[in-house]
Amino acid sequence: MYHPDLIRHPDSCPALVLNADYTPLSYYPLSVWPWQTAVKALFLERVDVVSYYEREVRSPSARLKLPSVIALKQYVKPSQFPAFTRFNLFLRDKFSCQYCGSHRDLTFDHVIPRAQGGRTPQQAAMPLYLQPIRPTSWQLQEHGRRFPPNYLHDTWRDWLYWDVELLA
Questions:
Q1: Residue 2: how many other CB atoms lie within 10 Å
Q2: What tens digit of pLDDT does each residue of 19-39 get?
């Protein structure tokens, strides 16, 4: 029987990583491991396999279906406050400029040096839409759910969107 997973290259078979409580470790960026890391964790008995791809890898003496969803055996407590990174800053601001609202060509601010003919946001009367805050991991997770990744395997959907409102 033909299945799209059968022609998939193993490198395009990442495993969605769930915490021990079966919730995603993170939504954005989505917590996924390459197939090699997932298989290694499986053999080291650090994860339980929740779902498999149809794709197999083989050795001379064994065949193994690649895991598509795995759950850690030990719970990992998320940090309360994420690292201050460029990506987390943009995620906090929902990938929009806090001065003009644009979603393109994001920078930390609109300051253009005077030597290049620019003005500061204050000189241009561009107030911030929102006052900056130090986001919690929970707030970034909530924002991340609004920006789904480009690739979602069918076996992942039950684990990523279990907390969204169902349509009647």
A1: 7
A2: 999 988 876 667 899 999 999
Q: Alpha carbon of 55 to those of 2, 80, 135: distances in Å?
A: 11, 37, 39
Q: What does the pLDDT look like over 126-165, one tens digit per residue?
A: 888 888 899 998 888 888 777 766 667 888 877 776 555 5
Residue 29 domain-assigned (yes or no): yes
When divided into structural domains, the chain yields a total of 1
**What are all long-range contacts of 63-66, with beta carbons under 8 Å and residues at least 24 apart?**
64/39, 66/10, 66/13, 66/15, 66/35, 66/38, 66/39
Indicate whether 124 belongs to any domain: no
Examine residue 130 and state whether it is found in any structural domain, yes or no.
no
The residues, ordered by sequence, that sit 6+ positions from 36 with a Cβ below 8 Å of its Cβ are: none
Helix (H, G, I), strand (E, B), or coil: what is residue 23?
coil
Of the candidates 81, 72, 76, 78, which has an alpha carbon nearest to the alpha carbon of residue 50? 72
Strand partners, 52: 67
Query: Letter for the amino acid at 141?
Result: Q
φ, ψ of residue 86 to 5 degrees: the values are -55, -45
Q: How confident is the model at residue 65 (pLDDT cuts 50, 70, 90)?
A: very high
Give SS3 for 142.
helix
Q: Please indicate, yes or no, if residue 31 is contained in any of the structural domains.
A: yes
